[in-house]
Amino acid sequence: MQYKLLLSLFLCSFTALLNAQVISIAAARALPAGSTVTVRGVVTNGAELGRIRYMQDGSAGIGAFPGTGSVQGFDTAVKSGDSIEVTGQLLVFNGLLEISPISAYQILASNIPLPQPKTITISDLSDNYEGQLIRFECVNFENGGGQFTTQGVYNVLDVNGQAGKVFVRSNHPLLGTGIPAGTINLTCILSDFNGFQLLPRATTDFTANPCFYFTQSLEQSDIQTTGFKLSWTANQSGSHFIRWNSSPDLSGATTLTAGSGAGISNFPITGLEAGRIYWAQAIAVHNNDTISTEVRPFATRSLSSGEVKIYFTHPVDPGFVGSLAPSGQNPQTCVAAIIERIDAAEQTIDVAMYNNDQPGITSALEAARARGVRIRYVAAVNGGSPALMPPPTFPVIYGNEFNLMHNKFMVIDAGLTNKAWVMGGSLNWSTANIFDDYNNLIFVQDQSLARAYTLEIDEMWGGTGDQPNPALAKFGSSKRDNTPHQFIIGGAAVEQYFSPSDGVTQRIAQTINTADEEALFALLTFTRDEPADALIAEVNAGSQVRGLIENTTDQGAEFQKLIDGGVNVQRHTVANTLHHKYVVVDALAPASNPTVLSGSHNWSSSAENSNDENTLIFHNEAIARLFKAEFERRWVENTTPTAEAEALEALRLSPNPAQGYLLLHDAPAGELRVLDLLGRVWLRQAWNGEGTARLETAALPAGAYRVQVLTANGLRTLPFQKI
Q1: d(CA 484, CA 446)
Q2: 492-639: which CATH architecture?
Q3: What is the C-alpha separation between 580 and 357, in angstroms, rounded?
Q4: Of 107, 314, 335, 447, which has the fewest beta carbons less than 10 angstroms from its beta carbon?
């Protein structure tokens, strides 16, 4: 009995010794969450960052946080420069790997020199540097010259124009101090809160550096099938070079002398193939100081048809589309279009879909796999996809464990010029999204775009192979801005962006700011300031702005701010969910660059900072008119009071056919417009709602027209003939 007791005590002591075995921080970071680890390292911060202490050894860095269940006194005893040993559990908190709770700690020494920060660029940010001291050379604060006034994010831009988020917490010693003006070197700790955060500790982490840097990174223009032009600018004159290759590896790249000066405008890259992606980098030399932009991908124009098919799950208002019509405007045609594209696939199908409860779509994918088509399917860990259970014959990877893999896209036959299709839009493959909710579905036949979307699949898949590689797969804030953004499709400009790497919120605000006459938006949720500020600015500039939002009480909702700013916005009150994420600009103003932005990206911080999302921007009048027609139908259904609806319904016009004038009897107050069948506005005038309105039509060419009465809450369209 005594022997057994001694053996038991020995085993317990041996187990405790094993559990307390010190391992490198890099080895600890490779273990799964929940593992108990003991690590040693030098602490790089104090109370300025709160209760957490970041520590690093020669291999990696990690945070230690005295959360619930931790031993007492850690955050008051441990200071910057302490060498410590910490034992505790690994925890992932909003994307940050940390040790918490802390079960034991020991201060081994104090006043140890801190590790030298690693010098990187913002595009280099990755989990590999998390918890470590890092350094950025030649960065600028966007609002340099002001003050750190409140807790929050302050953006910095590096020499390549990439943005990083500096976070200053409450009670930080930086609050009340000046934000550096001009170019600086920034030292900070890399943290994560649903996206990378840069954590400076004091003003000494900012050092002035009047360096040589790029003020404009590579920008593409004049996209042709055999090449394109690139422009870039530095802050000082120098000699400039450009190198490019058909892969991201530029070791064997073609290098060309581009010229001298502060920058280069529209330098031609020629002799390329249609429908391909090429990578390029600019280099500048000034007084023996050499700088280079990041390596960026650019697409040539493809030889594909450029056909774009737009589908909606509910009918649109035909009064705005003239001879146009969506490819479908009911749930059945949406499902049929998805399956049709899958059935027509010859070589490859790549899918990234948040959820899927449609066995018919999965069966079509199974059939494609059976006939030899390669299938790669990216699903969401938290999305719910019962149609993928039991596991299908094609491989599936589940991604973004800590946020949402919220994509809704599919790529068909990217290697075939006339078979390459990209599916986008707001539609999930779920019964509610297809048959109940309000959504859009977009198909684009273009090889260049398909190859760009394939790069995004490769990143989440962990490579280009038939089977996923989870060890290399990247989701959320681990991804990089590594796809082309500019395309010419069907003769019109198209842009594409992925979240959270590509700064989509900025693109939304920029799209809104192009409005000359009108901006219309339909959204599930809206919690970002930037688009709200852009919409309010458009109202102040005289544009007509209207919007519908489904979720108006989300935390941080912009609904009341928009109302206070004069935006005509309504909560969507009709049954079923408004799941759209689109804005349409100047649809009926052909000279004002009619534009549509749509995709999976809600106008929220989670979409901007942590979710996997996809967005398309079409500079295309026909597509803009289709989306305007969708919006106007939803607007009338949602906002027209009964009395006004009856007044609009009773509206009469005479004479019809018209010659010199047209009378509108009993028209309610609003704006009167005359449009032709192509949607072009010929006349517009305000109307006070009193008596009979008169429109002068003598100058109109003979033909078919429509008169519209647009009130604050609704719209009525009536046809007439001018003779």
Answers
A1: 14
A2: 2-Layer Sandwich (3.30)
A3: 19
A4: 107
